[in-house]
Amino acid sequence: MASGSLLNDIEKENILPFSDAGLNQTEIAREIGRSRNVVANFLIAPDEYGSKKSGGRPTKLREVGKKIRDNDDGIKQYRQ
């Protein structure tokens, strides 16, 4: 499970030129001061890096509950 922060824009901009220059992942990680794993994950798919949404706990409020909450009449309309 990830515990560190994502790469910032400056770090992302530095990784690709280092890779093109022939530095390996460990050397790039030392240059920018980040872990080898974060560099490796970025190099796998630079365009998609950091775009995956975290799962999280599902909402407890169902669709019906949302409609009741958002309706001005409240629960009266649904108790007929």
TrEMBL record:
One of its GO terms (cellular component) is nucleus. GO terms for molecular function: DNA binding. It comes from the Eukaryota. InterPro entries: Homeodomain-like_sf, Tc3_transposase_DNA-bd_dom. Residues 4-51 form the Tc3 transposase DNA binding domain. This is HTH_Tnp_Tc3_1 domain-containing protein. Residues 60-80 have a biased composition (Basic and acidic residues). It holds the Pfam family HTH_Tnp_Tc3_1. It is found in: Nucleus. Residues 49-80 are annotated as: Disordered.
